Amino acid sequence: MARNKIALIGAGMIGGTLAHLVGLKELGDAVLFDIAADPAKGKSLDLMQSGTVEGFDSDLKGTDDYADIAGADVCIVTAGVPRKPGMSRDDLLEINLKVMKAVGEGIKTHAPDAFVICITNPLDAMVWALREFSGLPHEKVVGMAGVLDSARFRLFLAQEFNVSVEDVTAFVLGGHGDTMVPVLEYSTVAGIPVPDLIKMGWSTQEKMDAIVDRTRKGGGEIVGLLGNGSAYYAPASSAIAMADSYLKDKRRLLPAAAWLSGEYGESGMYVGVPIVIGQNGVEKIVEIDLGDEAKKNFGVSVDAVKELMDACKKLDGSLG
Ligand SMILES: NC(=O)C1=CN([C@@H]2O[C@H](COP(=O)(O)OP(=O)(O)OC[C@H]3O[C@@H](n4cnc5c(N)ncnc54)[C@H](O)[C@@H]3O)[C@@H](O)[C@H]2O)C=CC1
Ligand SMILES: O=C([O-])CC(=O)C(=O)O
């Protein structure tokens, strides 16, 4: 049986970490595509040499030729620029939109059957633009943010309740920006809803509010500490979880930016919602019943994404 082929478009900090995880988890072979071909080739060699020690046989190839992604089962897109301290994700829009155009056309020509996971920021507008430029079916193009934001939320909750992260479930919905919506009422410790845990005296609403706030600012906290670039380990792990669910038809229910056509009262846009990922890509969008406050916050987040889409349309007439 042929190995899975995973095209990593962008071989920077996240791209390299993705390739390492592809090898360590024996998910298949990977192509590391980057406009900077030599660093991509160097990273690929270094990673394959780590495979000698770790015992994985993935073929990892650096390239700047889109023809090398032909036949990819999955494309994970990190091409573009990350933010620096003092910037918002939205400040990346203009430069990364141009990158999405080149990448979308490359995927359209060379890997039209792939399941595409976009990571490039500002995420919800970029995955929308990438889908438009690539012309791939909507159910085969998704954005990674919710798994990462929920991972941060879960970590902070696990630390507060002093339990294993394995037993904490949580959702962050909406756009991947300051308006994201961590949903406390759907967060649990081993199935016990967080609001019940507060009633039981395990924590307080004030502490939960602080965790929600820290989650919303989780990317910026790391940008501030790194000083030159943004998070890459957890973003890579998050995208690999999504790719794994697709490749193995695991049907995991994960929050991700998906194309809405009526769900949550919205159409014609990408935003973070719970989805089931299986062999066909987005198998299902799950419409959970949000409480009044979460519903209001989700609306604010949707509006913020729409503003970014409008900005993209102004910058590139073909998106009109
Ligand atoms: N959705 C999410 O949750 C997250 C999104 N991000 C975003 O992911 C993106 C990548 O982050 P990093 O890997 O840390 O950045 P990086 O700067 O380390 O890597 C980006 C790579 O893209 C390459 N590139 C630029 N233009 C290209 C093009 N036209 N075609 C192919 N490659 C191109 C660059 O040469 C560079 O190697 C950023 O936009 C960042 O904001 C980062 C963390 C989380
Ligand atoms: O904060 C950033 O710029 C990168 C990102 O999206 C995240 O880590 O959530």
TrEMBL record:
Active-site residues (renumbered): H176
Superkingdom per UniProt: Bacteria
The reactions it catalyses are: (S)-malate + NAD(+) = oxaloacetate + NADH + H(+)
Occurrences of domain Lactate/malate dehydrogenase N-terminal (ranges): 5-143
Give yes or no: UniProt keyword Repeat. Answer: no
Q: What EC number is given for this enzyme?
A: 1.1.1.37
A Pfam family this chain is assigned to:
Ldh_1_C
- Is NAD one of the keywords UniProt gives this record? yes
List residues binding NAD(+): G10, A11, G12, M13, I14, G15, D34, N96, I119, T120, N121
- Outline the extent of the Lactate/malate dehydrogenase C-terminal domain: 148-311
- Binding positions for substrate per the UniProt entry: R83, R89, N121, R152
Family of the protein in this entry: Belongs to the LDH/MDH superfamily. MDH type 3 family.
Organism expressing this protein natively: Pacificimonas flava
- GO biological process terms held by the UniProt record: lactate metabolic process; tricarboxylic acid cycle
Function recorded in the entry: Catalyzes the reversible oxidation of malate to oxaloacetate.
The name of this protein is Malate dehydrogenase
Q: Alphabetically list the UniProt keywords.
A: NAD, Oxidoreductase, Tricarboxylic acid cycle
Which is an annotated GO molecular function term of this record? L-malate dehydrogenase (NAD+) activity
